[in-house]
Automatic annotation (TrEMBL):
One of its GO terms (molecular function) is DNA binding. It comes from Mycetocola miduiensis. SMART domains: HTH_LUXR (SM00421). PANTHER family: DNA-BINDING TRANSCRIPTIONAL ACTIVATOR DEVR_DOSR (PTHR44688). One of its GO terms (biological process) is regulation of DNA-templated transcription. Residues 765-830 form the HTH luxR-type domain. This is Regulatory protein, luxR family. InterPro entries: P-loop_NTPase (IPR027417), Sig_transdc_resp-reg_C-effctor (IPR016032), Tscrpt_reg_LuxR_C (IPR000792), WH-like_DNA-bd_sf (IPR036388). The lineage of its organism: Bacteria, Bacillati, Actinomycetota, Actinomycetes, Micrococcales. Keywords: DNA-binding, Transcription, Transcription regulation.
């Protein structure tokens, strides 16, 4: 197989014009295909009737009568007289001369001949085979096209050296998909046994890891630099090392395979010793030594240092380096916390947890602060921030160091303000001013400010923390990511555009690595949902879940809440039921903390709509208790109060609404969002009481949209449109609803009754028309009562089989996939709250009082 374009061009030249005079040199390493090229040239000449003599010995021009071609192989082996005689052929005009030789040795006579030939024709240099040539060589040997993976493996092993490719090809059959290297190495080992012993020693030196750029091993120490250079030139010319002096992988494997282990280990230790003390880590050399099985403390320490250097920027690489350090004999306990940090930073929480469990089982575990940070971060991702706070309480202020701010963030997240203040009092982290440390301090400052009544400084601090963390490029263990916390504060403040901007910047700069990306994307989806951009939300969800590794429990709950919110805003009852069922299960896996309140703000409204509020009772009680312990911070509590107001409206429970309405009014003194929500609450009450001003309702609706509650504002306007008798007011409110949430309200109808029909679905989210016949509705109510097929049949005078048929059709029409979904959908369809009905005056004293505030 020809390895170069110049060789193929030479063959084409001879084939097309065999009688044109040709003087050319062919150079290449051993096994590069020089002899093969001469064989093919000889065939072309003889086919054209041109006489040929073949060397290296006996290739005398006088053996030819008239025009002919002299082909000389291995010219580097000829003596000076033979080379001088070949030189004379150049002067004979009726003879062609093609001389093949290696690059070493090159005696002066050969050099003169090569230079003379170059004046007549550029030299043909044969080098390694490219991928296409390797594929063709393997196909010729196998009789069938090889698999691409096999070609890749052969190219990597041989570096394209033709003689090695030939050795592998000789062992292949048409059924081979992977290589068995044992017979190949046996054959190559036989070849290597016949080469110069000193070259073989050089190959062993390179295979062990010496690159000859520093000290040379004792086995080569008797040679001068010139002597070593000569050995390298000989090995290169023989095709045993690459032109740049690097080892060929298959040669390396063969040499190590054929060398006694004790010799390899002695050389490896000599290699480690040859590195100066001040040279630092051995890097790739140390990795190769560890992978080969060498146990050496110096190698282990070098790999540990290399892992430390990339731990916060390339955790996957750090994890591999620590694993190799263990292979080289590193103390498993000493690097356990580092390995756990690397595992957690790549999303492998199970490995991180396993390492930490073993570490904490010791009485005096090393690297304790790092281990605590990792443990706290893992617990937070699992949705159990309360455990994170417990880890930091156990660590204590004396050992917290630079992690004190993180401890304070975790403790505030679970309502422990006293513990948080103790951690924040630790101080300035021993003066450390790295970017990631500054970011951590800003996180602590921002979260601390967020629970104050005004909380004006919280968002600026967290935004700066996000910027600094992104600039650091670091991936460190955190209770939550700076961009996520900044976005949460922005969303709880009604600043959707700011939240979106923070998240976009963090995602673009890869803040906290790939492990943070799903959470940041889900927060982007939440922001898009609030901004009434469902397609952007779904795209962000797809990006967050496409990795296939699954989400952590904290983020899984957020995802399910987004799915619920999207279904509720689209008025897709079957999708809402399915999303709620998935969310209901995820709620069991995650606890309640300050940074996970947002999903519950959506779920509490959906639960009220589906008559399943009881399933959230325990979690909501924990949420209110948490907020109470934090002093009811307006920034974190206002949105949940608003959700509770919406839930009270949906469930027609006036007594549940009053305390939340009062809380919004109190918070309005410090919070713009609370001010807007309080005004919206008054507008809602006036609409429900059928005593409202269109301008006030429209202002309240647009105010809701301005703080990220676009759908809520549209719902308010649509609801009011259904309760006004004035056509122009109706059209104005419907236009407002359509403007805020396109598709919420239909075009202005011709009568108030039609307005109610058009707005009923978006306002309450429940369709009047379930698509069921009167008989199916009757049977559906009996299903809700828990009756069996037989009991239903006896009640409506049909057979049990007919009852089963009716229920199957009901299930199909409602899109229920199982009995649980069917019962939920039937409750929504037949027992849903009538938010348009008249509220009796006796039922709304609290609402009336709130409306008057």
């Amino acid at each position: 197989m020809l390895s170069s374009t110049s060789a193929r061009l030479l063959l084409d030249e001879v084939k097309s014009e065999p009688r044109s005079r040709l003087l050319v040199g062919v150079s290449g390493v051993g096994g590069a295909g020089k002899s093969t090229l001469l064989d093919q040239l000889e065939g072309h000449y003889r086919a054209a009737g041109v006489d040929v003599v073949r060397g290296p010995s006996g290739a005398h021009p006088r053996a030819l009568n008239g025009r002919g071609t002299v082909l000389v192989d291995d010219a580097h082996k000829l003596n000076d007289s033979a080379l001088t005689e070949l030189h004379s052929v150049v002067e004979q005009r009726d003879l062609n001369l093609i001389v093949a030789y290696r690059s070493w040795p090159q005696p002066p006579a050969l050099l003169r001949l090569a230079r003379t030939l170059e004046r007549y024709h550029p030299s043909v240099v044969l080098g390694p085979l490219d991928r296409e040539a390797v594929t063709m060589a393997l196909a010729a040997a196998m009789g069938t096209p090889p698999q691409p993976a096999l070609v890749t493996q052969v190219v990597q092993l041989t570096a394209g050296m033709p003689w090695l490719v030939d050795r592998i090809a000789g062992t292949l059959t048409d059924s081979v998909s992977t290589l068995d290297l044992c017979p190949v190495m046996d054959q190559i080992g036989y070849d290597l046994d016949r080469i110069n012993p000193e070259v073989r020693e050089l190959l062993l030196t390179l295979s062990v890891g010496f690159d000859l750029s520093g000290q040379i091993p004792e086995t080569l120490g008797q040679r001068s630099d010139e002597g070593v250079d000569a050995l390298i030139a000989e090995a290169r010319a023989a095709g045993l090392i690459l032109p740049d002096g690097r080892q060929i992988p298959l040669i390396e494997k063969t040499v190590l395979h054929a060398t006694p282990l004790y010799r390899i280990r002695n050389l490896q230790r000599s290699l480690v010793t040859s590195y100066p003390v001040d040279r630092g880590v051995l890097t790739e050399t140390a990795r190769a030594l560890a992978r080969s099985g060498l146990k050496d403390d110096r190698v282990a320490e070098s790999l540990r240092q290399a892992g430390d250097a990339v731990l916060t920027t390339q955790p996957s690489l750090a994890s591999a380096l620590y694993g190799e350090a263990l292979d080289a004999g590193a103390d498993e306990l000493a690097i356990a916390a580092r390995r756990a940090q690397a595992a957690a930073a790549t999303g492998d929480l199970e490995v991180a947890t396993g390492l930490l469990d073993k570490l904490f089982a010791h009485e005096s575990p090393p690297d304790l602060t790092r281990a605590s940070d990792v443990a706290a971060a893992v617990w937070a991702q699992r949705g159990m921030l309360v455990r994170s706070a417990e880890v930091y309480r156990w660590l204590g202020t004396e050992r917290a160091g630079c992690s004190a701010a993180l401890a304070g963030v975790a403790m505030i997240g679970v309502g422990d303000t006293d513990g948080a203040e103790g951690m924040f009092s630790v101080g300035d982290c021993d003066g450390s001013r790295s970017l990631s440390t500054v970011a951590v301090q800003l996180i602590g400052q921002g979260i601390r400010d967020s629970i104050t009544p005004a909380a004006d400084d919280a968002l600026p601090s967290l935004t700066r923390a996000s910027d600094v963390m992104s600039a650091s490029g670091a991936v460190i263990p955190l209770p939550d990511y700076p961009a996520a916390l900044a976005a949460l504060v922005a969303l709880h403040s009604g600043e959707l555009s700011i939240a979106d901007s923070i998240l976009d910047a963090a995602l673009e700069r890869g803040q906290c690595g790939s492990v943070a990306r799903p959470r940041l994307l889900l927060l982007r989806a939440w922001t898009a949902m609030q901004a009434d951009r469902p397609e952007r939300a779904r795209a962000a969800i797809a990006d967050a879940t496409q990795a296939g590794g699954g989400l952590v429990q904290r983020d899984e709950l957020l995802l399910r809440a987004i799915e619920v919110g999207l279904a509720r805003r689209a008025d897709d009852v079957p999708a809402l039921v399915l999303a709620w069922q998935r969310a209901r299960e995820n709620i069991l896996h995650a606890g309640v903390d300050l940074y996970s309140l947002m999903p519950f703000e959506e779920l509490v409204v959906a639960a009220a709509r589906l008559r399943e509020s009881g399933r959230l009772q325990s979690h909501l009680a924990q949420a209110w208790d948490l907020l109470t312990r934090l002093g009811e911070p307006p920034l974190w509590s206002v949105r949940l109060h608003w959700s509770a107001v919406q839930a009270a409206i949906l469930t027609e429970r006036p007594s549940d609404l009053a305390p939340h309405a009062a809380a919004l009014v109190r918070a309005a003194q410090h919070s713009h969002l609370a001010f807007v929500l309080a005004a919206a609450g008054r507008a809602w009450m006036s609409v429900l009481a059928q005593s409202f001003e269109v301008t006030a309702v429209e202002t309240a609706a647009r105010g809701l949209a301005s703080v990220g509650l676009t759908w809520d504002g549209s719902r308010l306007a649509g609801h009011a449109a259904a309760r006004t008798e004035e056509r122009k007011d109706m059209a104005r409110l419907l236009a407002c609803a359509r403007d805020l949430h396109p598709g919420t309200a239909a075009a202005a109808p011709s009568a108030p009754a039609e307005v109610k029909a058009a707005t009923r679905a978006p306002v309450g989210g429940i369709r009047d028309d379930t698509g069921l016949s009167a008989r199916e509705r009757e049977i559906a109510r009996l299903v809700l009562e828990g009756k069996t097929y037989r009991e239903i049949g006896e009640t409506v005078f049909i057979s049990p089989r007919t009852a089963e048929h009716h229920i199957a059709r009901i299930r199909s029409r409602l899109g229920a996939s199982n009995r649980s979904e069917l019962l939920t959908l039937l409750r929504v369809a037949l027992e849903g709250p009538d938010v348009h009905g008249e509220w009796r005056e006796a039922e709304q004293p609290e609402q009336t009082a709130y409306m008057r505030r």
